[in-house]
Amino acid sequence: MTTSSEPQSALPWYRGIARYQWLIFFLASAGWVFDVYEGQIFNITRKSLFADILGPDRTPAQVKMYGDAFLGIFLVGGTFGGLFFGALADRWGRKPTLALTILLYSVFSGMTYWATSLWQIALLRFIVAAGVGGEWSVAAALVAETFPARARAQASSFFQASSVLGTWIAALVGYLVAEHWRLAYLVGVLPALLLLGVRLGMVEPKRAPASAESAAKAGSIPELLANPRWRKRAILGLLLAAIGLGTFWGVHIEGQGLAELVFVRGGATEANAADRAKIAYGWIEATGGGIGLMAFGPIAARWGRRRTFIFYHAMAFALVPITCFAPATVWQFLTLLPLFGFFTLGLHAGYAVYFPELFPNHLRATGAGFCFNGGRLVAAPILFFSGWFKGFVGSLPMAVSILGCMFLLGIVIVLFLPETRGQPLPE
């Protein structure tokens, strides 16, 4: 693997960053925090939601079926939003598109409070997901364009790491509202307050003047896929994101299931083990994952993007079976769990760092959105397959260990992508 040399400053990466650049980082990160909140709050409240909407005659099979279907709707909506609003941001501008995506998912999240039928919730979840997918595409490009090259990787990884706050907020709100699930979606209106900051504090980023041909093709997905250079990067980036998102649903979230098995084996009742497993996943594993997300950028600034991706994928592949089978006690498992989260979740920061660096100005948000949100769509079959596969195997540790082999495929994909460390953003 070859990397370009990158000028190293004697100062920490965060020194010398202007207040306006920090403002952009805050607005982008706050939007991403509530993006994640919108996705996680459904997972947390869906039992109460379906209990209310389906009524007392519901069955566990119905709840699972509709839960999986609505998750699929969210993935498809996120893909649509990422592609549409990413293209719009390259053509229309970052500032208005960011404001529109935040307004979209805020308003339609709040409207869920009044939903009374499955079709209404399905439609609202699709629209919310479109705003969520679009916000990431715009925000990731915006952070990459605003921060200087020496701080770009670190700022982008910290932007992605803010997702952990969204998970924590969703868990807290879910706990506070209990069975009153509708209130949790009213909280989703709060990001609309960010519009004031976007409208008053943000200016459209200055980008290199585009040629007449590039300006005409700004935000064009056909242009992205017609150019051999950008097409290769877009397709490989999409596959790389699909591996990360597929392993998130197939491997990372099963930290909770593995914890429950360990607690039961340690003598806890099933009910107590389930409660303790939620804490282990929501706080111990999530904290490790958050640290992994924040660490990706500094490591990538030193080692290069490709080496860092390979390191994270390789360590995740190694740690999954170790976490599944090695611990003999609860405390041994809880010691490994943060490391498990560090690598299985931490590699997601690389998408915010890397994808905007792969594409030129007139296709940057389009390409980043195509990779990350297109990866959602490709990962959807992995989600459903992993659910079936875990039941087929019968042993959760064995099934998770086998699914962890997908991390090796991620290494193979990275080998065919270029190194961008120390290089200016493509013009």
Number of helical segments with 4 or more residues? 19
Quickly name the level 1 CATH class of the largest domain: Mainly Alpha
Q: How can the largest sheet be summarized?
A: none
Strand content: under 5%
Helix share bin: over 70%
Q: Number of folding domains?
A: 2
Distance between the termini: 24 Å
Task: Supply Rg.
Answer: 21 Å
Q: Per CATH, what is the topology of the largest domain? A: Growth Hormone, Chain: A
- Tell me the overall shape: globular
**CATH level 4 superfamily of the largest domain:** MFS general substrate transporter like domains
SSE order, one letter for each helix or strand: HHHHHHHHHHHHHHHHHHH
The class by helix and strand makeup works out as mainly alpha
Please mark out the parts with pLDDT under 50 across 5 or more consecutive residues, or reply none: 1-8
- In the CATH hierarchy, the architecture of the largest domain is Up-down Bundle
